[in-house]
Every structure is written in structure tokens, then in C-alpha cells.
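Recall that a protein's primary structure is simply its ordered list of amino acids. Everything else, from secondary elements to tertiary packing, is in principle encoded there. The following example makes that idea concrete.
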Amino acid sequence: MLDLTKVQSIAQSYSPQELFAALVWQRRFNQFDGEEVITDLSQRPDLWVSFLFTKPIFAADPDGLSFGGVIDTLIAMANYRPMPETSIIHFVAYPADTLYVLTENRDTTVSQLLDLGKKWRADSVDVCDGTSEEYGLRLKRRLLTRLMDALDGEPGTQVRDAVVISYWWD
């Protein structure tokens, strides 16, 4: 059940990025420490434009793995209830295991974000720049256009290339 008063207050008080930061902050599993990740990202806002924490997204998905991750997330969110620390019942937290970071495609920026993946002990760190056959040129154009139009508030002011860095934890 949604408390609309609470939802309205949260919507007026927080940006979508802050809401995702809160989800990352809560998560801790295997080698992943959400508090460490958010602390590092907050200290280096020059390295990223935005980030999304979710289940893996696959471009080509003949086996429905991406959809399965969406279903897992929906089920976990449906069953989640805040419980006191002393409770023997604990619900699955937001079940994300992949962090996607949108950034400008500059060698120094990408290099520093790759280094953060090592610091965060990610099992896999990938750079999606639209050049692989898996994603194709359509993604490359979309990354370029989206970053160019979205950051400065004035469409077409400066051509800026973008990449998405993904971090995955097993």
C-alpha cells in the first residue's frame, strides 16, 4: 500500500538520482558495499553525469534474462517490509547487482571510473561506448545526442561524447 502523503513528500524533496543513491546506500552483499560506492561518487561528481542501480540489462536477450531480473526486482519490492534489526524476519533488499554510470567519454574520466571498479571490488567492469557489435551504431548516436542535449540545458551547444560504465557484482 502506498502512503500518498509520504510519496508526495519524497517526490518533492528528492531527485531520482538521490532515490537511486539511497537504494545503493542500503545494499551490502558479497564484495559490494553501497555506502562506500555512494561516498566515492559523492566525492567525485566530476566523474559522472548520472547512475542507475538495477539488475543487468542485456542488448540481445533471447533467453529473457533481463526480463527475469525485472521480475525478481518487482517481487522483492512487493514483499519488502521495513523490519527492526532485532526481527528474525528479514526481507530481500532491493535486489540490484549492477551499477550503470553515464559519463563523458574522456580517457582520464573513464580511467578513474575503471579504477573505482577495482576499489569497489566489482566482479566485472565494462565500458559501453557504442562501438561493439553487440550494441551497434544506434547506441553510439544515442549516447552522443543524449549527453550533448541533456547536460547544458541548451540543445546542440556542444558535441560531447558519452559512455556508460557498468559494474557488476556476483
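Strands lie at 28-29, 32-33, 50-54, 98-104, 124-128, 162-168. The chain has a mean pLDDT of 77.
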